[in-house]
């Protein structure tokens, strides 16, 4: 029998047990596999105090000194990759091979990227010859940053916000999702071993309504970054607004693909199948709406459904499955509710939920599994087309003109990205300019590039993810201007 994982809070460099514990359920089995602190005001306040104390010294270190700690953490995480991959899979429900090849390596890359990229951006300068002055801009750390993490990509999402925050000289109080706390807890040991000073990173575990709300409303956290649903993002912003906090929110998406009749159908179907259902369709960049030109619609739909039916769903620990388990019973029920809503709106389920049986071993019979589902026949105002499902559900809808395709994609403000499938690059670029998204892929789909700006300012939230954007968010600018002109002679100083 597996040993129950007991998670501790990480405050001032020390693992601190909590008397109040909450159950964490393993999605693949439906059984309790971890106990997580139910942190409240006492724990959150202690973490903030520790972060404020550590800020005085950490913010004064050079970029090189801070980078040394991040690079050491990256090396340690890399040395423990398999342990983290297995824990991430059990905690979130994703296949272990996905955690091994994407989630943990991406977290390692995030640490190294922040360590190498940000030090070179912390100071800029300009010479104003006509005014006889030289100016330079310092990017100074803002203080204590609150980080509230999503459950979609737990470790990667945590490190993605943590690394630039501390690299810029801030200290942090973080709260992982209650559903997926274990790898963040394991990462606290990495921070200890990497030699991070006590209090630079503090992690409190617990529920959103308790610990999360306390972070959002805490007066000593000038910055807050949040990942989660659109509804919760709005609530976080409303809570933080009276305190004039600088807030970054990264919510779930309802992303689209536009498929024209002249596309490479084989490549298109293969890619859309993967990016629609990877990680059980639970990442913010997964495609959930596919709009297909009428002349290709029937052929695409038949080919796509056949391809989706070939995807294997099963225990996350098994290397042979493309999809694992949905993150929680509540999330599974929410997805099913959307499918029932689609049926009420006269949509047709072509494969997946209610159509194809999901076979799992007896040890996983209480897990939260669902077959990848494709729905057709929905109107543009359908809930499934307008709202975020965050699950393995894709809706396919025909369009007749470019203008109609643009209208369908822009119907919801939840799109973070869109892919365009056509051999006509003139059409592709024309659409890219008209779609209200911040990421557009043409004949491909991929994950975020850390140096590509992708600031979102829609109902999916407002979050800057590129290195320069991280610098803008996690630091405060200070301009220093110096006279370099001889006042008596009226000549510029030779300062070269």
From TrEMBL:
Keyword NAD: yes
Gene3D superfamilies (UniProt xref): Aldehyde Dehydrogenase, Chain A, domain 1, Aldehyde Dehydrogenase, Chain A, domain 2
Record keyword Oxidoreductase present: yes
Molecular function GO terms recorded: oxidoreductase activity, acting on the aldehyde or oxo group of donors, NAD or NADP as acceptor
Domain Aldehyde dehydrogenase residue range list: 22-480
Alphabetical UniProt keywords: NAD, Oxidoreductase
Similarity annotation: Belongs to the aldehyde dehydrogenase family.
Protein name: Aldehyde dehydrogenase domain-containing protein
């Amino acid at each position: 029998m597996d040993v129950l994982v007991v998670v501790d809070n990480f405050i001032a460099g020390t693992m601190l047990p909590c008397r109040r514990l909450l159950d964490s359920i393993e999605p693949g089995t439906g059984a309790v596999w971890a106990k997580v602190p139910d942190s409240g005001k006492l724990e959150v306040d202690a973490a903030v105090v520790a972060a404020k104390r550590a800020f005085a010294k950490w913010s004064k270190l050079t970029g090189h000194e801070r980078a040394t700690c991040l690079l050491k953490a990256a090396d340690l995480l890399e040395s423990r990759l398999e342990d983290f991959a297995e824990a991430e899979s059990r905690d979130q429900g994703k296949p272990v091979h996905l955690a091994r090849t994407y989630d943990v390596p991406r977290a390692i890359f995030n640490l190294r990227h922040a360590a190498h990229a940000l030090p070179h951006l912390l100071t800029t300068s300009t010479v104003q010859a006509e005014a006889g002055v030289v100016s330079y801009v310092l990017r100074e750390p803002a203080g204590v940053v609150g980080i509230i993490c999503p459950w979609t990509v737990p470790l990667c999402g945590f490190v993605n916000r943590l690394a630039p925050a501390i690299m810029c000289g801030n200290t942090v109080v973080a709260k992982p999702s209650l559903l997926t706390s274990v790898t963040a807890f394991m990462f606290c040991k990495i921070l200890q071993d990497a030699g991070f000073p006590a209090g630079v990173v503090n992690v409190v575990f617990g529920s959103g309504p308790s610990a999360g709300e306390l972070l959002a409303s805490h007066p000593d956290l000038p910055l807050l970054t949040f990942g989660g649903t659109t509804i919760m993002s709005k609530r976080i912003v409303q809570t933080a607004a009276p305190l004039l906090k600088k807030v970054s929110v990264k919510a779930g998406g309802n992303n689209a693909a536009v498929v024209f009749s002249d596309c490479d159908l084989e490549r298109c179907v293969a890619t859309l199948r993967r990016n629609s259902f990877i990680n059980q369709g639970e990442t913010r960049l997964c495609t959930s709406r596919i709009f297909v030109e009428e002349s290709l619609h029937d052929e695409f739909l038949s080919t796509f459904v056949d391809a989706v039916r070939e995807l294997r769903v099963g225990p996350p620990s098994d290397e042979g499955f493309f999809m694992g388990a949905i993150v929680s019973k509540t999330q599974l029920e929410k997805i099913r509710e959307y499918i029932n809503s689609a049926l009420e709106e006269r949509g047709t389920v072509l494969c997946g939920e209610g159509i194809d049986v999901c076979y799992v071993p007896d040890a996983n019979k209480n897990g939260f599994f669902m077959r990848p589902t494709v729905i057709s026949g929905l109107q543009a105002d359908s809930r499934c087309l307008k709202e975020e499902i965050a699950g393995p559900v894709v809706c396919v809808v025909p369009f007749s003109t470019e203008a109609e395709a643009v209208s369908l994609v822009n119907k919801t403000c939840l799109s973070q990205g869109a892919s365009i499938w056509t051999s006509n690059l003139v059409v592709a670029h024309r659409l890219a300019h008209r779609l209200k998204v911040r990421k557009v892929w043409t004949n491909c789909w991929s994950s975020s590039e850390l140096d590509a700006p992708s600031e979102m300012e829609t109902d999916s939230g407002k979050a800057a993810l590129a290195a320069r954007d991280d610098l803008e968010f996690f630091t405060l600018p200070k301009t220093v201007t110096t006279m370099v002109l001889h006042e008596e002679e009226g000549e510029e100083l030779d300062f070269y």
